[in-house]
């Protein structure tokens, strides 16, 4: 499971600055669930081959009223969601009563936490660290978030203990031969079959869909082998194929009444996405595409997951509404135009069975081993068709390509001056590979290597 790290502390200690530095901000999933406050911000980041989810919080002041109280509440929720808490304090302000209060809370909750003494630029680190030792939380590090100082030791402490991501790197691309291309490489865990995460905002119909998929008579559901975090992993077989459904909505949990707020958690969704092979992304046809859909979908793409889109609640819609919904989908989801779209009714079961074919195709596209000579041939044809540009009088040379990983497929292209390959040309290559290899449902990564 992807570790979750929360940034907490008083306002203005530098939490957002650190958050932005760690996530590089572009891909941060801003804001929380509709109906809740927007005081928590989620992002994904990597450090030394480990992905983690980072939560930024508004801050805790110690004498919360009104909006502050809400903010503090969100911080406390983030602490609960986190595996490790980075407790930021401000070296310039020195130790404050609110810091003491937060430390007290962390101690009570028995959370693994690290005191992060920020803004040590122009200050003596040891004096700064000593200032905060009365907090009595044990470990501490000194950083300057604004300048990137001390970040590595901080992450070493925070993430060093977590295992590295299971990446589907191909051990040796040179051994892939013609004719081997249809052989699948296993997912992270072959016995699980295709791991499908059912993802979407609250009330789009995830629980209904999970129940429908598992309630089908052709499905053999196995005993739940225990739960991880809050998502439930349900292995089942359908036809010849094995699957594991990652149920973020938690319908299968018996005897537990969960309110909406508890039922939907951003962290749970993000972790399920990371842990899946294929995401079935559920949206509500009657509500259209909203920003929160785009955030979650963006995260799934960033994670390289294969995707199948299910536009749910298609039942009982007027033809003109359907027409409009289709147009909206096309307009706003242009960036996932490689994914299959299904118009379904989880409630009545219409269209649900067809999801499997798309899941299988997307998975196959994501994990097929393409031999080096095939990928190189496609590259050569693409270059012949449309040459890369000249850079300072010299033409960019692209020599050969090989597969560097799967789920998502990583195509590594070797050549000269590859740093200068324009974005548009890269997109051209990506589209060419997608078209020729008939890849559906999966994002593709292209990486250039210089030299030779
Ligand atoms: P937050 O409220 O905890 O999210 O704090 P912000 O990230 O918004 O930072 C509050 C202020 O502290 C901003 O003016 C930042 O530029 C400043 N700041 C953040 N990190 C550092 C640092 O390492 N050194 C210095 N000198 N200022 C910093
Ligand atoms: P979740 O929060 O995403 O798990 O959503 P639920 O599965 O709990 O569904 C939310 C509401 O939408 C419930 O009242 C469902 O009965 C309803 N719903 C789910 N799927 C459909 C559908 O296909 N058609 C219609 N009309 N309602 C649906």
TrEMBL record:
Pfam families named among the record's database cross-references: KH_dom-like, MMR_HSR1
Keyword Repeat: yes
Binding site for GTP 2: 200-207, 247-251, 312-315
Gene3D superfamilies the UniProt entry points to: 3.30.300.20, P-loop containing nucleotide triphosphate hydrolases (3.40.50.300)
Keyword annotations of the record: GTP-binding, Hydrolase, Nucleotide-binding, Repeat, Ribosome biogenesis
Ligand binding (GTP 1): 9-16, 56-60, 118-121
UniProt xrefs under PROSITE patterns: G_ENGA
Domain EngA-type G span(s) in chain numbering: 3-166, 194-367
InterPro entries found in the cross-reference section: G_ENGA, GTP-bd, GTPase_Der, KH_dom-like, KH_dom-like_a/b, P-loop_NTPase, Small_GTP-bd
GO MF annotation: an example: hydrolase activity
The protein's role, per its UniProt record: GTPase that plays an essential role in the late steps of ribosome biogenesis.
Subunit (UniProt): Associates with the 50S ribosomal subunit.
Family per record: Belongs to the TRAFAC class TrmE-Era-EngA-EngB-Septin-like GTPase superfamily. EngA (Der) GTPase family.
Protein name, UniProt field: GTPase Der
Organism: Denitrificimonas halotolerans
